[in-house]
Amino acid sequence: KLRDPDQPEFHQAAEEVLASLWPFLQANPKYLNSGIIERLVEPERVIMFRVSWVDDQGQVHVNRGYRVQMNSAIGPYKGGLRFHPSVNLGVLKFLAFEQVFKNALTTLPMGGGKGGSDFDPKGKSDGEVMRFCQAFMTELSRHIGADLDVPAGDIGVGAREIGFMYGQYKRIRNEFTSVLTGKGISYGGSLIRPEATGYGTVYFAEEMLKERNDSFAGKRVTISGSGNVAQYAALKVMDLGGLVISFSDSGGTLYNPDGFSMEHWNQVMALKNERRGRLEEIAGELNLEFFAKQTPWHLPCDVALPCATQNELNESDAETLVNNGCICVAEGANMPSTLKAVDVFLAARILFAPGKAANAGGVAVSGLEMSQNAMRLAWTDGEVDEKLHAIMQSIHAACERYGKQDDGFINYVKGANIAGFVKVADAMLAQGIV
Ligand code: NDP
Q1: To pair with 172 at 20 to 30 A between CA atoms, which of 11, 76, 166, 319?
Q2: Where is substrate bound in this sequence (predicted)?
């Protein structure tokens, strides 16, 4: 009997992990005999709550808030909050499930969780966003804590929202603790946290390219999204000598076959982080082509970095990428490729890294933010960047250890899933049936 049939994203994430783990589980029956799989797919706890807030016109709105506390075998729950109209329990369970394996891969002691709301920050004033965040945190504050559950940002939750939520937590609990990460530098945030997921994805892809004695120099790179992850993935690609040829948002794709300049990048940053506008608005100003309502996957490229959202790259997109000569795909977003798209990449034997390995840099630096807060000190940007780089290299090595085939091909899906699973499963075995 299929439990929760209305949660397709969660089933998709579980299927991807379990299918690639299966031969390993058969060879290691201790994991099969102890109900580990049954326990891994059931959240330890799910909290759902009402969030009521008042808009600028005095109108009352009601949204739904969630926190999925998925697995705490190796540390306190850790994972972002997403504010987007598409948020529902199934989406958050898929994200929390992925987070468990991802956090294990970082080498840091963090369990997995995820939360958020179906609230849409787009088009809302700062005052409305603040009132929503305060209402959301008023309830969430009962369920989180620096040694219990430490949320962070995700889609729709950036520095502004984290600041509003942190202020409300502090007001309610009367304590200054590391209960959220992604905080501003002036109140306990870590340098390099905004950059971490994007930089980490590119560091990981760089390790993959090295496997084929290759590098980013001169590579045409398509990037989807234009939010936090996409912005800093683009910056690092440019830094390594690659040509970033696209950004996108839900309105379409901005294309520059010659590669975006730093000036273009600054304009995208200002548009998305300050004016909170749409890419379409600047296409004319920059004299660049804009493909309305289209993703970037039809554009010929060498490397593709999907950095927007789940299931944004399907089987036919994957075929187009492979046919156009793309040699490397690293997921900055969570589960951007459908199961069939992943099959296409693996069958074509191109370099393919799943999000749980390639985008783990964000949560890794969140873990470093918690360490700095606990020690009451702050590392320099160089120190944090160095640790991030080393963590991404160690995740690559773990994928290689468990995913390298006899013919030398690295199946990063298999490698990441087994490496993450073994750490969590061993901790669960040691702690008994709980
Ligand atoms: P942001 O909110 O900063 O940006 C999201 C981007 O994706 C925007 O450009 C947005 O466009 C686009 N997007 C979102 N939903 C859709 C959709 N349904 N269709 C088309 N485009 C869409 O989020 P982040 O950059 O933080 O997150 C992006 C991805 O990376 C997510 O999958 C997230 O889970 C993952 N991730 C993020 C981490 C982080 O540290 N931030 C860590 C690890 C993973 P628009 O504005 O038009 O909606």
Answers
A1: 76
A2: 78, 99, 102, 153, 366
Pocket test for ligand 1, best of 91, 119, 154 (most atoms within 8 A of CB): 154
CA 353 → CA 89, 129, 207, 346, 422, distances in Å?
26, 35, 11, 10, 19
Pocket of ligand 1 (CB under 6 A): 153-156, 158, 197, 225-230, 249-251, 307-309, 332-334, 359, 362
Q: Compute φ and ψ for 119, nearest 5 degrees.
A: -65, 140
C-alpha angle with apex 114: 113 to 120, nearest 5 degrees? Answer: 170
114 carries an active-site annotation: yes
Rounded CA gap, 186 and 139, in Å? 26
Residue 297 to residue 304: CA distance in whole angstroms: 8
pLDDT in tens, 42-58: 999 999 999 999 999 99
Place of tokens 């600041």: 163
- Catalytic hit among 1, 30, 93, 114: 114
CA of 250 to the centre of ligand 1 (A): 10
Q: Which residues are annotated as a binding site for NAD(+)?
A: 197, 228
Q: Which tokens sit at 74?
A: 């190796």
Q: What count of other Cβ atoms lies within 10 Å of the Cβ of residue 272?
A: 22
Q: Give the C-alpha separation, 69 to 124, whole Å.
A: 29
**DSSP H/E element including 424:** helix 412-430
With tokens 């089933």, the residue in question is 11
Amino acid at 417: N
311 burial via Cβ count (<10 Å: 0-12, 13-18, 19+): middle
Nearest Cα neighbor of 356 from 14, 5, 6 is 14
Answer whether 115's CB lies under 8 Å from 46's CB.
no
DSSP 149-206: EEEE-BTTB-HHHHHHHHHHHHHHH------SSS--GGGTPPTTHHHHHHHHHHHHHH
What is the residue with the minimal CA distance to atom 43 of ligand 1?
Answer: 359
For residue 183, report the distance from its CA to the centre of ligand 1, in Å. Answer: 18
139 close to 65: Cβ distance less than 8 angstroms: yes
Say yes or no: ipTM exceeds 0.95: yes
pLDDT tens digits, 121-179: 999 999 999 999 999 999 999 999 999 999 999 999 999 999 999 999 999 999 999 99
